[in-house]
Amino acid sequence: xxxxxxxxxxDSGGMAxxxxxxxxxxxxxxxxxxxxxxxxxxxxxxxxxxxxxxxxGVRCFYDADEQIRLWGAxxxxxxxxxxxxxxxxxxxFISADYAGGEWTRLERRAALARAVAEAGxxxxxxxxDDSELxxxxxxVVSVDLRLYTPEQFAGxxxxxVAGLAGGPRIGMGPVAAGRLLAEVTDPFVLEVHRPxxxxxxxxxxxxxxxxxxxxxxxxxxGVVRAAAGGRSGIAxxxxxxxxxxxxxxxxxxxxxxxxxxxxRLWHPIDPSxxxxxxxxxxxxxxxTVLWLNEAQFYLGPADGTGERVxxxxxxxxxxxxxxxxxxxxxxxxxFWNTLTARPPGxxxxxxxxxxxxxxxxxxxxxxxxTAAQAGVLAAxxxxxxxxxxxxxxxxxxxxxxxxxxxxxxxHHITGxxxxxAALVMMALAxxxxxxxxxxLRGRRLAAAGPAPAAAPIPADARA
Length: 463
What we know:
Blueprint: E1 8-10, E2 34-37, H1 43-55, E3 60-61, H2 67-70, H3 75-86, E4 90-94, H4 96-100, H5 102-117, E5 123-127, E6 141-144, H6 150-164, E7 179-180, H7 215-228, E8 233-238, H8 245-252, H9 254-257, E9 264-266, H10 273-280, E10 288-292, H11 296-299, H12 305-317, E11 325-331, H13 333-340, H14 352-358, E12 362-364, H15 371-396, H16 401-410, H17 416-447
Parallel strand pairs: 2-3, 2-4, 4-5, 5-6, 8-11, 8-12, 9-10, 10-11
Antiparallel strand pairs: 1-6, 7-9
């Protein structure tokens, strides 16, 4: 029996009582929202399902996460209790390995026994293959796992378990804030600046120009890798307008996209940035990126909201139960100075929490190149110019002379005018090189000048 959508197939077995409605106590008093019953041969797939469920805020029993608790326990007693009493639902991953396993038989019997005793959906079958499973009735619907990635299947499980809990997720942990990072593919949604668009641009060009890493990218990558390794952290990119702060954060997300356990990204904006942050901070779970572009909007309001957001972020970063989390924030230098300035004497300290959150976490993003980078660029331009002249001379003396002569005649570069044109071009190249070097040095000196005085943060400030 095939159901609409081509993802539901009827089991060749069937579960007694398996096609009834959700029971009245779905999710009540259960330790787990869902337990996963599977054979060891499918551990890689199921492990990714478990990680995705936890990232969505679903309380999931997965044996590899409970090794310490199960150490020394009598599994013949413990497993039936988990699968029949402590879980609001059980996902049974059907395969030939599962049907013939001893421990999987114990888990399955415990789940089926409860399904017989209680009306309602309890066991959720999912198939790796078409193996028969004793105890299941022919009309019980299962999911064909061959059509889904682990992360996609985890989304189905989360939605189903939420429905069993009565809609408002009774008995489940809070819905995890944000979206799966794998679903965040549009950089402009996260306020990365759009590149200048040419009127006659060729089709098929990438939405963002090629990215050239700078010094701050290496520092940022260190913070991101530490979070991937399990340590919560915060990185605040400080720089002027259009220096590439938000783009650098976007590129850094690539370090987390290939992690074996899925990360989430949370960008609070509605109804206002600080209000959204305060509302959702308690729902932040492990492996979440907090995207605080233009962090002055979150930390700067003078009505006390900003300080409450900063305090909540500090508590989140030091909470081991929710680690690892990663805060990526951007600020203009003037707002950084405002939020981290210490008041004179015993004056009021309007940004004490923000200062404690931010100090020592800044990563400078300069528009200008460093002295070393400017030197390398100037040297490269000089070598390129000299190399071009040398290549021309070698080519002219090794068979390219006739072609050069034809080009010169066709473009009227003959006689004394050829020497004049060559001298003018060399002089222009030298002047251009010197102007570029002077410009880069000027930008570097300007960026290293005295820090501007602290400025008030207007309520409607916008980068």
